[in-house]
Amino acid sequence: MSSTSLTARENCDTNDVNAVEFVKVAIVGAGASGLQCAHTLIRDFGFAPSDIVILEARERVGGRLYTTMETRRGLDGTSLHFAMDHGAAWVHGTGLDWEAPLSKEDRSFPMRNPMMALLEKATPSGESVYERHLNPIFLGNPWMRPQSIAHGANQIVLYVNGQELAKDSPLISLALKRHYALLDRVSDVGNTMFEQGEGMETTIQSVKETISKIQDEPNFRSELERLSEDDMEQVLALTPFYLHMIECWYGKETSDLQLCEFVDDKLNDDNADETYTAEGDFYGPHCTLKKGMSSILEPLLRDGVNKRIRLKEEVIKISNETNTVLLNTVLGTQIRANACVLTLPAGCLKETEGRYEFFEPAMSASKLEAISHMSMGSYKKVFLTFDRIFWPKEEAFLGMIRKSSFQTSDEPPGNCMLFDNLWARNDIPCIEAVLSGSAGSWAVGKNDEIIRDHVLSFMKDAMGIADEISSYCQDCQVTRWEEDPYSRGAYSSMSLGALNRHVEELRNPEWEGRLIFSGEATVTEFAGSVHAALFSGRNSAEKVNEYCTLVEAKLCCSQLDDAADKIGFLKPSKLNW
């Protein structure tokens, strides 16, 4: 368990369970957003820790940031220790150089990743943030920029139909060229629809539907005719892998990705990666953390925040009372607050629609519409430990493609699989398979053994291994955010038909400003990321401060009015006397 995890309700000063407690601010959820909100209220707006309570349903803090320290036997027999992130694991771009002397304006959003600000706070004076915390893996976004970031830096090995492709294989260049040409045509289709007044349709039409039409175009098919039959088969098998990488980035299939996501992204085959526009990430290296994502949480627990967290105290009802919000918890506690910040993931918000009177009264129609247009991406990590390393050790990604075959409902869908290969370089015989989108949905509810066997079978077919590699496998751990009742998915995304106004409505307060919505789903540009959760925590703290300031101003005016009334009553009496 991470060192930042809290384990007992005693971490929060509490009153009698049967009494109604009063605080200025009740925060539901001790994930990145909730902790950032509390931290900002105390550090930036002068709230006292005692003004705040954070109610967390789990027995730990962090939400979908969850780090455990693992021990594995290395190839030489020694015990090796490392951090394993079961949820979020990446700093998706450091932004500008955090160690350069920049103005306050340059350090602000969106130039810099807020995760870096927290890592800076967690770094002792005189030490480097990079050296203490960061493992730079890629120079940019490899999921969206495979040509320059993954292949250009020799950070990926590909296996197609049982064979390892040479890194300088012309088939890779052909597949990349076809991939970028495909995305360019997708963008053309979307831009044309906008020009013809059909912009709204780009939110309903999926990328997969668009691609299917493009692939049937004669000009697009003719490029393959000059290839031999074997080479054509390889290119046709490899090209979808780069779309699969995009699916891993978004956590959803192209059949669920809105066409509008790719509108205006005009690409050039020769410099598509160099002209890349950030898609929810920051410029700069994409890194993992040496001690895991718990390093992000540690600074947020300072200044008394950790003492205001109540673990294993699920909120079961939120009611709008006169000028306050009343929260009921599973322990029977009632808490009355001037303002409530709700950081429930989108998947849990959708579930509240079926829970009797979770909100009393119900949310506004516009809020319910916004929630209905949100969805949760499926992203399962299958962490495998072996007694040997039988794959390349240095490259960060392994891409595996197997031949198409008839698939039953008992088999995982798709012919592509991405593997994170971040441990073998340190002689730790571990690798992580990514099951996203429909493959992730397939794995929901299945036990670890079934998932493990299918991943191993996929590896065996794609790599062309004759041995039964299941005998090498010593351990398998599968993340289950989709099954987790307190997340119901890995990270948020917009359903087909969703508009930016739905995200904006999702973060709009209810109940005259007393009920404030926060979390990564409420940030349009960065939805689904840790930095989105941090931005939303700051934003919700600002809304809380504005609302509480207004409440105090009204109270002050009311007291002045009362005083004036009393003075007005006494003056005539004195004059008459």
UniProtKB/TrEMBL annotation:
Residues 278-544 form the Amine oxidase domain. Gene3D superfamilies: FAD/NAD(P)-binding domain. It comes from the Eukaryota. GO terms for molecular function: oxidoreductase activity. It holds the Pfam family Amino_oxidase. SUPFAM superfamilies: FAD-linked reductases, C-terminal domain (SSF54373), FAD/NAD(P)-binding domain (SSF51905). PANTHER family: FLAVIN MONOAMINE OXIDASE, LYSINE-SPECIFIC HISTONE DEMETHYLASE 2. This is Amine oxidase domain-containing protein. It comes from Phaeodactylum tricornutum (Diatom).
